[in-house]
Design goal:
alpha+beta, 3-stranded mixed beta sheet, 107 residues
Length: 107
Amino acid sequence: MMAGLIVLKPGLDWSAGGGLFDWTLEFLIPRVSDRKAAEHLQEIVENNLGSFWLDDVPADTRREILAQWQDGLIEAARDELPETSHKSDVLRQLQDLVELTYEAGRT
């Protein structure tokens, strides 16, 4: 399975297996108010592009994406991801992304 990469800012990135990468972007699609950015995320998932650079979206949208991940990603993962023996590892990996968002939000 292909891995995916989210670049929060140069030198600050997070990678995950393709399924988790896709789910992390799909989490954002209905939640982000910038529809052009949502379409960009959908295109990445549908075409298996494998990377998302936060700098590809406007500054307001970047802040919104970081806030969405900070405020809802872990809870959504607990609710939506299947109960498997790997779920705790997946939640830890998503928590790593959330922690990186705080660093990415500082300039």
